[in-house]
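for the writeup, i need someone to sanity check this before i put it in the appendix. the sequnce is what the collaborator sent (i think, or maybe the updated version? ugh). structure was predicted straight from it, no edits. if anything looks off just tell me and ill rerun, i have time this weekend
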Amino acid sequence: MRNELTYLHMHLSDHPLQLLRGEAERAGCIPTCAVTAHAGREVRLAGLVAASRRHRGAHGRVMQFVTLDNESGLVEALVSSAVYAALGDPIRNPGPVMLTGRVVIDRGHPHVDVAQVQPFYRRARPFAGLPRG
């Protein structure tokens, strides 16, 4: 997979998050395909940033719209202007990232109102419980 990304600039054989799914589950992340089933609840997701756009609102405050991609699909996420300001432009690279937020269904489409963002490599206890050797 590393060679595919290095030489082709894309992944053909598998999604990069497939390699990290066990770690994501240990960190409490659900796959994006399960987001709708968690409507109204807080969830944690891990994925790559497929798209990101910032928008300056009427009062000049910046908010960010993010499309998160993992091996089970895409989900939209909204970083409100208050969270964006508090976290200081939290999503600046393609990831993988870990988002925590509440699932909202708007006109039949789910999105996550983000409360927290962190790079996936900074998750608590990476590789905990894996056999050594």
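The beta strands are 42-56, 62-70, 73-79, 97-106, 109-119. The radius of gyration is 15 Å.
thx in advance!!
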